[in-house]
Amino acid sequence: MDSPSNRSLQLLALLRTGRERSTGDLAAHLQVSERTVRRDARRLRDLGYDVTSRPGPGAGYSLRPSMKIPPLLLSADEISAIITSLLVLEALAPDDASVSAARAKLEQSLPPGLRRRAAATALSTQVLHQDPAPVDWALIGVLADAVATGTRLRFDYTDQHGCRSHRTVEPYRHLLRQRHWYVIAYDTGQADWRLFRLDRMQGVARASGPHQPREFPFNSIESWLASDFAKSHQP
Fold first, then answer.
1. Which of 51, 57, 176, 194 has the smallest CB count inside 10 Å?
2. Angle between helices 76-92 and 112-124 (to 10 degrees)
């Protein structure tokens, strides 16, 4: 059976048509009892959605036509988790306006009940200031797309000794480690796995040409990073 969150999302989609739907009709579409429909409608109201009902024979439900529907149906606990995570990112990169802007837009898109929970979480949470970890979100997006599509990337790299080189890699994962962002990738020139700091990469571009994506050959990222082999191969 679907979870209450998934089922409520389906109910919300049915009510977005703007017309009243009978309880029996909704129950048939959702393949649940009419009692479950009434419970899910009450849950949507508790989250701040303006769901109206007509009692009596042929009872039904409708959604106020002007009600704006955010793209995600989130619980109060999930909102607290997301807001807290964004606050941690803000503490890591206090000069980066992207994170605070994302939090503001999320809060504005929420119904009143969840917006109050988001504001309460932000008010009651204090993340101690840490050294900033600058994030190039455009580069993060390029890396994410490359990982998802199995695309190679080319870039110029300056290592910890100031030596510059040109690299062609197959990205595997990017990660935050010791207040720096890195990408784990297979370096085709070195024929081995390497760890690159994002702030030392310049001119990142897609590398054309077909290739067979390779699997990360280690049990876990954590075990590889802790190995002497990985420590001696970090440019």
1. 57
2. 40
